[in-house]
Amino acid sequence: MNEAGQRKLPKIALYLFLGFTSILSVFPFYWMFVIGSNTNSEVNKIPPVLLPGEQFMTNVAKVFERIDFFGALWNSFVISTAITFFVLFFSSLAGYAFAKIEFKGKKFFFIFLLATMMVPPQLGLIPSFMIISSLGWVDTLQAVIVPGMVSAFGVFFMRQYVASSIPNDLIEAAKIDGCNHLRIYWNIIVPAIKPAFATLGIITYMNAWNDFLWPLIVLKDSSVHTIQIALRTLNDAYTTDYPMVLAGTFLATIPILIVFLIFNRQFIAGITEGAVKS
Fold it and tell me: Where are the transmembrane segments (predicted)?
């Protein structure tokens, strides 16, 4: 075999591997659609059904009858968008401060921040609920938005990105030109960390969209249910209409896919930024 043929073999193997892993990644989404487009009797067949059926719109209609699907979708959109905006804003500000500003106790506060990431969030459910209840925020969207406005991981991620991507000389030159910290942040930091915004934004949006435990605790009124809580109410006490549940879940997954496709290029750029630096 000539040299050109030997070079092609690794590429072919790589493409086959990527194609196989892509199929594995897409299959759960496809399977969700298959279940959501069939009936319960067809779902319970052995061997299982592998092709989409004709009952998808019927199952979707059942979802719309049982829950306020679009109302819950809107609540999830508002909560996820608000949380993502505030996390990006506060995390980038704090990340800039920890990376480029010298102040007393800087290392202590950063270590303390990292330590909070080791605490299971379930330990804070009771005190958090007591605070939310005392403020009268139960059954309101701010009960979910406000506790999620700051992320320790977001601050850590932004701190690492700012420290590695923005040279200190650039910050010093801006200070010599008379820029204060707010102007440095807005005119230098923000444009330079757009890939990090996209990466952290997608991660935060997905986590907020898929959050289940905390909204379940503080959102009892069906008018403020998120889509995850609304889908939970589709389960009956004794029987479960799996095609109906999976049809609703399939529809609820589409907005996440749209967000990822929109910011896909920036997300990959943010993930690979550190790998291409010399």
Answer: 12-33, 72-96, 108-132, 144-163, 184-206, 242-263
Query: Which pTM was predicted?
Result: 0.85
pLDDT in tens, the chain (278 residues): 555 555 666 778 888 888 889 888 888 889 899 999 988 888 778 787 888 888 899 999 999 999 999 999 999 999 999 999 999 999 999 999 999 988 899 999 999 999 999 888 888 899 999 999 999 999 999 999 999 999 999 999 999 999 988 888 888 888 888 888 889 999 889 988 888 898 899 899 999 999 999 999 999 888 899 999 999 888 776 677 888 999 999 999 888 888 878 777 766 665 555 444 44
Domains of the chain: 67-233 (1.10.3720.10)
How would DSSP label each residue in 242-278?
Answer: HHHHHHHHHHHHHHHHHHHHHTHHHHHHHHHGGGS--
Burial class (CB in 10 A: 0-12, 13-18, 19+), 71: middle
